What we know:
With 137 residues, this protein is an alpha+beta fold. It has one domain: Nucleoside Triphosphate Pyrophosphohydrolase, CATH 3.90.79. It has 2 helices and 7 strands.
Amino acid sequence: MKEQKIKVLVGGLIKKDDKYLMLKRHQNDDVYPGKWEFPSGGIDFGEEVEDALIREVKEETGIDISEMKRRIIGVTKYIIEKEDFVRDSFQINYLIEPTEIREIVLSDEHEAFDWVEVDDKRIDDYLIQIVNQAKNN
C-alpha cells in the first residue's frame, strides 16, 4: 500500500488589470513538469498561513506582498499520486491586488511567467476554480 500524506498549501492569485500572473514549472519538475500555475507552496510546520503566503510568493516571483491588499477567496483540493505515495492536498487561496510590481524574479522551480486573461488556454479547470472563487467572494 502506498504511503498516504496530507499537505496544506497557500496559493496567490495575483491580479493586475484583469490579468493573472502565471508561472511555468520547469520541464524536469517531478510533480507537474511544464505546467502553468499560480504562485503557491506548502506551509511549513508552525508557520502562520499569511506568513507562508508572503514567503512563497517572494520565493517564486521576487514580489514582496507583505504590504499589499490580499484576502482569502477559498480552499481547493487536489490529489497527487506517485509510485510510492498518494498526497491529498488542501490549498488556501488568496486574491492579491498589487498597486505596483516592478520586476518579477523567478525561482529555480519555474522557467517562465506571463500575465494572462481568464480565457487563456493555460488556465486549466483547477485554476478556473480558483479564479471563480475570486469572482464569487
